[in-house]
Specification:
683 residues; alpha/beta; 8-stranded mixed beta sheet; 25 helices; elongated
Length: 683
């Protein structure tokens, strides 16, 4: 019995099960995965297009809907990049950097023109993308249009079962298992209405052929197109229209481009394909698309929700610059005023603006609770909300904790991120510290910037708790460090919570180092090696446990462990190193490195810091040295082992240094103030 016969049997079994078991649940896998999957790809199809087209709007209440992230390996997602990514099942690089997207290659004598150039491009950019994997699988998939030829080409560029234009009669034939249809890119200006109508007609014809239609934007239509998440619809819907999702994003209403490949394969083992270059083939990045959530019955509300989601994904990065400019600008002005006048008022202003910067590390996450993307002028709303929460955090910390306001901000950040992690990181999506779907970074869990804030919050909190216990018992103080730091490590690293591989690599040795120094007070070479070994063992244990789960349920912990067993981690390290080195292409990266090294120097050699207030603070408690050394260790290890590079310790310094300076200014008050001379004892 061939696949077609087996499919009929499976459909019969599924129908019988449905009749016996009832309607099922909203989170069940779509039964339509056993039907003919027809992917209709439209480069540049936006939710604004759906809003502007009555025909496309009418599809919304007949479909599971969502948005699709079309980030590929390169900086721009041209149509060639999108179709190659579907071909490989992992992010591929198609276009030539800094050149227009251009036309898709033609098919000559059954072979995609210039195919070897795209194969070589994967090797040149170390993508590890095995283009040709989908076509090489061996299952008969029909293709229509130039983009489909690229998606379904075999490793040598040859294409079978393909036609240059859409043919509904061919699609309806039983030997056309699944299908990929290139509906053509949306035009940038003239002819967009006609293109929308064409897409709606194509969907209707595909459904008439008995297809389980997946209408998706597969790329931006042009190199200079506005980057945003695009349209994703699945028709007909199972159990009524709901929200598309996938294990690769774990977010209702959000899928990514590589999910398309996994959905076409429907659990079949992908072909083994060796990419060009030294890299071993990257595993499938995506997972089968399914649905979740409550029914939606109002197309206009759904479209408004998707347009609002795009605002949520797009606004944070640009607004981060303006928020930072406002806070740092106010800080600089206040510090200049203080240095010139040395008055109590100028001191208070300087302390307050420094605390506002500390409050930013609370506001950047808490702002998501305001649902700012649904407000008028979403960009300005995010700016105002973030500044407002930053200021409010500083005010509350000063009012209730006085000169220990710095500690309150650190503890609040620590607790906030612990709660966020346990809840599945709802405050990360759309925050200024998350590489959102448009950028194609993390869809769930903690990113590098979030980890930097958590690391500072955890280590400062642990240091304060140990300080309170140190006179009673060094052992109790050390245990407090391990408990508080350990909670951060667990939340940061646990798959499904923080899911942050690089974070626990950096935070684990820092917590162990701090615990050891709290207990023993000194650090030998043997102890340092032991701390490092324990940190590696902890990370290995988490990765191994994740590896034991089924392959489609693993996070990147288990995936990395599997690749390590296969001896296939070189390309991972190469890509991470390339990303880390990118910071040094301009003066900003070097400036951050100098600042980080100065902070580490102040931690290791406090007596050489030209500030009596800092030197007094360093000796004020036996826990200051362990806490500062742990912060430095966390930042340096994070810099060396994460793709964020020097940005990670720079973000940590951006949190820790202002609140420390605020504490020094607030606690080291002048003994006398002479209005005539303004001579004061300053920090």
């Amino acid at each position: 019995m061939g696949w077609s016969g087996a499919r009929r049997v499976l459909l019969g079994v599924a129908a019988l099960a449905a009749a016996i078991g009832g309607t099922g649940t909203a989170d069940a896998a779509p039964s339509g995965l056993f039907a003919k999957v027809v992917v209709v790809g439209v480069p540049g199809l936006t939710w604004s297009d759906v809003q502007a087209s009555p025909e496309l709007t009418a599809l919304v209440d007949q479909a599971h809907v969502g948005s699709i992230s079309v980030k590929t390996a390169g900086p721009h997602t041209c149509p060639i990049d999108g179709w190659l990514t579907i071909s490989a099942g992992t992010r591929a690089w198609g276009n030539v950097p800094d050149q227009p997207c251009g036309e898709l290659p033609a098919v000559t004598n059954g072979t995609v023109d210039n195919w070897q150039a795209y194969v070589d491009r994967q090797a040149g950019h170390h993508t590890g993308a095995p283009i040709g994997r989908l076509g090489q699988t061996g299952y008969p998939i029909c293709g229509f249009g130039p983009g489909a030829a690229i998606a379904l080409a075999k490793t040598d560029g040859s294409v079978a079962n393909w036609q240059p234009t859409f043919d509904p009669s061919r699609l309806a034939k039983p030997d056309c298992g699944d299908a990929v249809v290139d509906a053509g890119a949306m035009p940038l200006r003239e002819g967009r209405d006609e293109a929308r109508q064409k897409v709606a007609d194509l969907v209707a014809q595909a459904r008439a052929a008995g297809g389980w239609v997946l209408l998706v934007g597969v790329s931006q239509e042009d190199l200079n197109a506005h980057k945003q998440t695009l349209v994703a619809m699945q028709l007909p819907p199972d159990n009524g229209p709901r929200w598309l999702t996938g294990d690769s994003t774990r977010r209702p209403g959000l899928i990514q481009l590589t999910d398309i490949t996994a959905t076409i394969l429907k659990g079949r083992t992908p072909a083994t394909v060796d990419p060009a270059g030294e890299e071993t083939a990257s595993p499938l990045d995506g997972g089968e698309i399914h649905f979740t959530g409550k029914l939606h019955t109002d197309a206009s509300a759904v479209i408004a929700d998707r347009l609002g989601a795009n605002q949520r994904y797009e606004q944070p990065r640009p607004m981060l610059f303006y928020v930072a400019l406002t806070i740092v600008g106010a800080e600089v002005l206040a510090l200049i005023w203080f240095l010139v006048r040395r008055s109590p008022a100028s001191r208070r202003a300087a302390v307050f603006t420094l605390l506002v910067q500390g409050g930013f590390y609370i506001a950047v996450f808490l702002a998501q609770a305001t649902v700012w993307w649904r407000w008028p002028a979403p960009g300005f709303s995010l700016y105002a909300v973030t500044i407002g929460i930053s200021v409010l955090s500083a005010v509350l910390a000063q009012v209730f904790l006085k000169k220990y306001a710095y500690f309150g901000l650190a503890v609040a950040t620590y607790l906030l991120l612990l709660v966020d992690g346990v809840l599945g990181t709802p405050m990360q999506l759309g925050s200024m510290y998350a590489d959102g779907p448009v950028i194609g970074g993390r869809f769930y869990g903690f990113g590098n910037s979030t980890f930097a804030a958590l690391g500072v919050g955890a280590l400062v909190t642990a240091g304060w708790a140990a300080h309170r216990l140190l006179d009673k018992s060094k052992l109790q103080a050390a245990l407090a460090v391990l408990v508080i730091g350990g909670a951060a490590i667990i939340v940061d690293g646990k798959p499904g919570w923080g899911t942050d591989f690089g974070g626990i690599l950096a935070l684990t040795p820092a917590v162990l180092l701090m615990g050891w120094l709290t207990w023993h007070g000194s650090l030998s070479l043997r102890a340092l090696i032991s701390v490092g070994v324990l940190g590696v063992l902890a990370v290995t244990a988490v990765s191994f446990l994740d590896y034991l789960r089924p392959a489609d349920q693993r996070t990147h912990f288990g995936t990395f462990f599997a690749r390590m067993l296969q001896g296939d981690v070189d390309d991972v390290f190469v890509r991470k190193l390339q990303m880390a080195v990118m910071f040094f292409h301009g003066p900003t990266g070097w400036a951050m490195l100098i600042a980080v090294l100065l902070c580490v120097f102040a931690t290791v050699f406090p007596d050489r810091v030209p500030s009596q207030a800092y030197r007094d603070f360093y000796r004020s408690s036996a826990m200051v040295r362990p806490a500062l050394l742990a912060l430095s260790a966390c930042g340096i290890v994070g810099m060396l082992l994460n793709d964020a590079g020097v940005a990670l310790p720079a973000i940590m310094a951006g949190f820790a240094v202002p609140i420390l300076v605020a504490h020094l200014l607030a606690s080291h008050q002048p003994a006398t103030v002479s209005p005539e001379s303004h001579l004061v004892q300053e920090s």
